[in-house]
Amino acid sequence: MTIKVLIADDHHVVRRGLVFFLKTQKDIEIIGEAQNGKEAVSLANELNPDVILMDFIMPVMDGVEATRIIKQNEPKISIIMLTSFADQEHVIPALEAGASGYQLKDIEPDELVKSIRQVVEGEKSLHPKATSQLLTKMIKPDQKNRLDDLTKREMEVLQQLTKGKSNKEIAASLFITEKTVKSHISNIFSKLDVADRTQAALYAVKHGIV
């Protein structure tokens, strides 16, 4: 499968750097570049990318507004906010707008590629600094530690999940099938009363298992 990527950033040097590296990946194709959020919306409608690497602050229309419009028009497009800001005032609006990932521009190239592949698989992909900003926002404190309800194997899966590993990577690490991993993750979501991998990971970090 070839992953079609659209890059939206108002800095030419940033776009050139991303294109230069991503073109070396056999499973990634750069199908377009946008200089602002408005262009990103237009090209998203025209080119139908799988993933958009979206800068936060851009002229004409910022990345959050562009993300919100794109997700309303094309929910299947995954958007990774790629920015220099890791505070709550930036992270939370981006995720609320529909971004599947939030990465900082100091990310290692290989980690960015991993992030792109993760969001294509329907997973969340957050920079550790962004994750730490969400701890107090996304998880409500409760008196009972729900981790106590997890089995030993579910705890092992949760630990791997919290490290940002995909289902395939978790399966290989624990010597079980991907189907079994999916079943464990479903049980984890239910027992922790969370909606997705990000919230499960945040719960785990908050309660000190990583």
State the strand order across the main sheet. Answer: 2-1-3-4-5-6
CATH topology of the largest domain, what is it called?
Answer: Rossmann fold
State the end-to-end distance.
Answer: 33 Å
Largest sheet: 6 strands, parallel
Summarize the model shown.
52% of the residues lie in helices and 14% in strands. The protein has 10 helices and 6 strands; from the N terminus they run βαβαβαβαβαβααααα.
Secondary-structure map:
Elements: E1 3-8, H1 12-22, E2 28-34, H2 37-47, E3 51-54, H3 63-73, E4 78-83, H4 88-97, E5 101-104, H5 109-120, E6 125-126, H6 128-138, H7 152-162, H8 167-174, H9 178-192, H10 197-206
Parallel strand pairs: 1-2, 1-3, 3-4, 4-5, 5-6
Please give a structural write-up.
Helix content is 52%, strand content 14%. Strands 2-1-3-4-5-6 form a 6-stranded parallel beta sheet, with helices on both faces. The model has no long low-confidence stretch (mean pLDDT 89). The longest helix has 15 residues, at 178-192. The chain has 210 residues and is of the alpha/beta class. It has 2 domains: 3-128, Rossmann fold, CATH 3.40.50; 139-206, Arc Repressor Mutant, subunit A (Orthogonal Bundle), CATH 1.10.10. Helix 6 (128-138) crosses helix 10 and helix 7 packs across helix 10 (197-206). The chain starts with a strand and ends with a helix.
